[in-house]
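Supplementary Note 3. Input sequence used for the single-chain structure prediction.
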Amino acid sequence: MKLFKDLLLESPDTVYYKRKTYSYRSPANKCAFLVYKDEKSGKNTIFGYSYEKDFYCDDAEVLKDVDELHKQPSIKLDTNKNSDDQLSYWGQRAISNLKNGNSGGGHLDIENLLKGMGRFGAYADPLLKGRIFEVFDDKDVVDDSDLKIESTIPSGKGIIVTFWDSERKEIANYKDQYDKVIEFIGYDPKECLYEPQMNFYTYDNFYNDGPSITEKPSQTTKSENFKVGDKVKIKGLADITGEVTHVDGNHITIEITSSKYSFGAFRQGRALKILASSAELVQSVAGTKASDSFSVGDKVKVKGMNVAGVVLSVSAANTIKLKVNKSDLKTVPVGSEFDFPYYGLEPDDTVAASVKLDKVIHNKNKELVDKSGKLHSEKTVGKNDDKPPTPEEKAKLEKEVNGLEFEIKILNDLLASGEKYYTDNVKDVVATSVQRKLHALEKEKKNRYSLIAQAEKQYGMPIAQIRQKYRNVPLDQLVKKESLYKKLLKTLRG
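The predicted structure, written as discrete structure tokens, is reproduced below.
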């Protein structure tokens, strides 16, 4: 199954602590931050957002740029342009998304904001990404992640700093910058837990290569207890099951085969490397039929009742966990979660076909065929069929065709990875990705035309004749080849 590593999707950073799960979309996410190389200063800079405190950066000039962009008149999106104004549009929109949210926001918005200010390369990647979560430190629940610290941290709370897929030795390079962000939010860095790759560390152990508090020898389960192909679930996450694909020391790698999450680290199809001690074998139940009828994300309704919702998980015991989004029963309120026998549910036919992803892809393909036919047809495609298309009309149509090709590919990747509906979030993500891919394509074309012009000037002949002379030589090497040739002649002539 194809994962969308190459897409611009926000991958939810989810924390599991004291038997509770916290999503990056919840108010528990107090701050999202990243370290990046600043295009203007050339320095490795840390930038983040807290919905309670505002923006943070260790470069005051960046914060000035944020303020200036925020105060500018509203920038409109022009799909016919590939200019800095488009990056500014996404940057200004990112500010709005962050300030109108109820959490520390997403990294995609933070990246778009930095790119909109010209601070971050349009196709660059952050050096490191992380978040700060404030979670419930329930004293009635005793487990290995109990930090037992309450001084400056609010009573009954725990602070967890998470990092995306990074080794401790890489994270430690920016220790001083993290400390400043944590202090800016109002916490003491030494009183936080640090969680890279699903392991919890105290401050001293994290930065001094000490053991995690989930890696105590007395609790370690050897990976030899598992073998490739075993069905397992992650302890404490009953709605997530997977299959062992690799065994390595005290760790195992699993591919998630069932999950209530549509996106993020725990989504279906994602591969995870975890401690063997955090997994347990799934005891199969014979005769399951629920998974044959429904899957996570399906829109369903309860037979004979005006109750509908989304499938969160499918149990081996033939029950479906449903999150209710439509109900006229007081005993089954909207937003609640219930377990139903699979035979008491049926597909929700009231879901508009226009939001079903496979239907959208079908319509997009029809549109692509139609516009591609016009673009490559010998007939005219202008407003007046008696006149040939203008260069502007042809360029616009070509851009629409390229955009549709990019969009269909992204939507197919989403469909293959388990997404089923054309939601507003999917629309926004796809629109952003398509615009960036079109911008990259336009840049590539301009570079090619520039090389052709340079080659024709150096060789003194059209590109077609140059190609006949130097077959199978890349365009950029043609220019270098002639330059070296002329330099050699000049040397020989003295």
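The first strand starts at residue 15 and ends at 17. The chain has four domains: 15-217, 220-281, 290-347, 353-455.
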